[in-house]
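Slide 14.
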Amino acid sequence: MTTVSTSAAPATPMINRDRIVDWLGIAPFMIFAAMFLIIPTLYLVAGAFLTPEGDLTLKNIVDLFTPSILSAYWISIKVSVASALGGALIGFFLAWAVVLGGLPTWVRSGLLTFSGVASNFAGVPLAFAFLATLGRTGLVTVLLRDWFGFNLYSTGFNLLSFFGLTLTYMYFQIPLMVLILTPALDGMKKEWKEAAQILGATNGQYWRMVAFPILWPSLMGTTLLLFANAFGAIATAYALTGSSLNIVPILLYAQIRGDVLHNANLGYALALGMIVITGLSNLLYILLRMRAERWQK
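Slide 15: predicted structure.
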């Protein structure tokens, strides 16, 4: 009679310690995102459908279609579109020059370093910088008047206007475009251009038929990101123009914190509209970014 001895299999631990460590590593980020992004967003969405007494209502949503609020949305959209298109156009040529234009390496490193700083330079410091430079008594304005006899403000220019705010926004829009588009231009393979040249394509035909179709998702996606970036900005606009320019972030601030227009729930509805618009822009950006990455693999 033979006996078969079987060794007991090692017991599988009920708790994976490595997995616990992994979750603990991202726990601070998840807590931070929940406290300062997810929960406040849900609070705003819920408040948009409530009265000050806590009753359900659609009046706040209906009030978004009043002429003054629609005008604020329209001005915000125009400023965002103008600064996004301007930033995308200038930023594209800057990125193209440092990546494919044959400029020295130090120019690229210097531009990217400056872009990393300038893309985050916004709010009150940026507004003060433009007022000190292009304001009615700004440095550039005074130099143009005293040295060249050119009065900038006699041409109709006004920093505290639609054009002035668009110009100010472009200060951080252009560097952001450079930072995001540079990796896409770096991903353009030399073999594609060489193959086009072997087949007899000119440089213009290569860009029109090969390069631009590949870069188009990145260009469009980044432009949408610039739009969302400008649409949600408030500190720069408020510090620069105060309440002279009726854009949505300033109107929202007046509804929630103002003494005259105080209506917190209408402010929540305004915020909900901004969330929808910027959310759609970011969603389209993510989809276009995924398509661009597939092309460049």
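Speaker note: The chain has twelve helices and no strands.
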